[in-house]
Write a structure and sequence with these properties.
Elements: H1 3-16, H2 19-25, H3 30-44, E1 49-51, E2 56-58, H4 60-88, E3 91-96, H5 101-113, E4 118-123, H6 125-133, E5 139-144, E6 151-154, E7 156-159, E8 186-188, H7 195-207, E9 215-217, H8 221-229, E10 234-237, H9 239-245, E11 248-251, E12 258-265, H10 268-286, E13 303-304
Parallel strand pairs: 3-4, 3-5, 8-9, 8-10, 12-13
Antiparallel strand pairs: 1-2, 5-12, 6-12, 7-10, 7-11
């Protein structure tokens, strides 16, 4: 039975002393209020009200139970109020700090269509994972290897001048003995300061004979792009980011670096909700390639309790 609705009808009728006036106060028809109170009396095993042509008066049993019924109704109303407040509370989502503002605005608009007030928090990878761990955000797009990813972003090298070939091989950056110009460098953004991207590149750098300082990390996407725009250096980035910066992009010849992203949250339902409702908008923000369609990879697991991945130093 509808215990809260029955108690609400009982409280209002007993306070007004009339089924007609009490039912109106409870915002229900008189016949509905009568049925609910009758069902409550049957459930409790004793009559609550004495009915006459003019008035409804409390029985001794009803007088004893009225304070408890009133408290139950008040708690139900408080619960409803808190639920509405919770639905209006912003859902804080940690996102990569290189997400374009326009794509984030569209993501927020997409969320509102699902009655979700989204508040993106742009942060580098390690901070996103940490904010989820300490529950400063409800969910985060965390950096993961390609095999664990919901969204993937293939990376290549981009520079201010048009390269000659279809790919850029890292070995072509090796400085010759007679070169007078400074060695060309590859710049990593904070988003790529994670082991599954940085470490293979560092091993390749060493294998092809580049100097340690030819693989560098910048403090922000803007700082990394600025180094490339004013030199012959190259930026490790996605094709979409290169187009946004007006750079010429090519795949890397010796490796296929890929940014991978998954949703992490302290509560699994939050991770699943974000992935299912906003998967397409998140892909736009990340510049991700579709996996088997236009959305995130089907069946990829939501993550809870992510580990923290860090990158150290300025030269990889």
């Amino acid at each position: 039975m509808d215990l809260v609705g029955a108690c609400r009808a009982f409280v209002k009728v007993s306070e007004r002393g009339s089924f007609t006036v009490g039912a109106a106060a409870a915002r229900m028809a008189q016949s509905v209020a009568s049925r609910k109170i009758a069902a409550l009396e049957k459930h409790l095993g004793e009559p609550l009200l004495e009915r006459s042509a003019r008035r409804a008066t409390l029985t001794p049993f009803g007088r004893d139970l009225l304070p408890h019924a009133r408290r139950l109704v008040q708690l139900a109303e408080l619960l409803e109020h808190e639920a509405e407040t919770a639905k209006r509370r912003p859902f804080r989502l940690a996102v990569p700090d290189g997400c374009p503002a326009g794509a984030l605005a569209r993501l927020i608009a997409d969320a509102r269509r699902h009655e979700l007030i989204l508040e993106p928090r742009p942060l580098p990878p390690a901070e996103r994972a940490e904010r989820v761990r300490v529950q400063e955000v409800r969910a985060a797009l965390v950096a993961v290897p390609e095999g664990e990813a919901v969204w993937t972003v293939p990376l290549g090298l981009a520079g201010a001048t048009e390269p000659a070939g279809a790919r850029i091989h890292l070995e072509t950056l090796r400085a010759g003995r007679t070169d007078r110009d400074p060695p060309r460098r590859v710049w990593l953004q904070p988003e790529d300061e994670v082991p599954h991207i940085r470490d293979p590149l560092a091993r390749l750098r060493d294998a092809v004979g580049l100097r340690p300082a030819q693989l560098m990390s910048a403090g922000s996407p803007a700082a990394a792009a600025a180094e490339v725009l004013c030199s012959r250096d190259l930026l490790l980035c996605s094709r979409a980011q290169a187009a946004e910066l007006g750079l010429h992009w090519r795949p890397l010849g010796e490796l296929r670096p890929v940014r991978g992203f998954a949703v992490a949250a302290a509560v699994r339902a939050d991770a699943e909700r974000i992935r299912e409702l906003l998967g397409g908008g998140i892909a736009r923000c990340l510049g991700a390639e579709p996996q088997g369609g236009s959305g995130p990879r089907a069946g990829a697991p939501a993550r809870t309790g992510p580990g923290t991945e860090t990158g150290a130093g300025t030269a990889a």
